[in-house]
Amino acid sequence: MKKILFIACSAVFFLSAQIQAQSSKNKLSKSDKAMTKETIYQFKVEDLSGDTFDFASLKGKKILIVNTASKCGLTPQYKDLEAVYKEYKDKGFVIVGFPANNFASQEPGTSKEIETFCQQNYGVTFPMMNKVSVKGEDMSDVYKFLTQKSKNGLQDSEVEWNFQKYLINEKGELVKVIKPRTLVTEPEVINWIKS
């Protein structure tokens, strides 16, 4: 009788230990999942020509993402953006522009009009995407990633105006948000590109 009782107790103890171990494992995988931040590489968008642009093609490069507009007081920033892109594009750096009409309707044009404007006025050669929304209910998925800490793992932010810049490291992670009026030629940006 004692032998049967001992075997039964041992079995209960063993089962209890197994259940506890499985429970701990489940909790760990849930917390791991919650802490896994996204990267820019998961996104595919459409460029101004209507072709698919896959951010995964930029793995290993530093990326500056900027929301642009053609009729803004900050529009001349295109000139500096293009100059910096040309200087560092062969050194593991790329700029990706997202035209947006969220601020005072300063980007009303079609994709073709935006492309023509950028090329004729500023000789833009860095990748330009189709027009998106960078705030509000119709915010693009890329900008949800850029502005939500739960997705980017760094910080919550709001796109304040045209030409706000987001710096992405070689692993596809958001590392810094740069205010719209801060030029791409400022030391904080150039030093990051060169580092």
Note down, in words, how this protein is organized.
The protein has helices at 2-35, 77-88, 111-122, 141-147, 149-152, 187-194, and strands at 44-46, 52-54, 62-68, 93-99, 165-168, 174-178. The chain is α+β, with helices and mostly antiparallel strands and 195 residues long. The strands form two sheets. The chain has a four-stranded mixed sheet with strand order 4-3-5-6, covered by helices on one side. Residues 28-33 have low confidence and may be disordered.
Task: Give the key terms.
single chain; 195 residues; alpha+beta; four-stranded mixed sheet; two-stranded antiparallel ribbon; 6 strands
> Measured on Cα atoms, how large is the radius of gyration?
24 Å
The strand line-up of the biggest sheet is 4-3-5-6
- Total strands: the figure is 6
* End-to-end distance: 75 Å
Q: Biggest β-sheet: count, sense, barrel? A: 4 strands, mixed
Report the helical percentage. Answer: 25-40%
Strand percentage lies at 5-15%
Shape: globular
- Helical run tally: 6
Runs in which pLDDT lies below 50 for 5 or more consecutive residues are 28-33
- The ordered H/E elements are HEEEHEHHHEEH
Q: Quaternary state, please?
A: single chain
The mean pLDDT is 89
Structural class by SSE content? alpha+beta
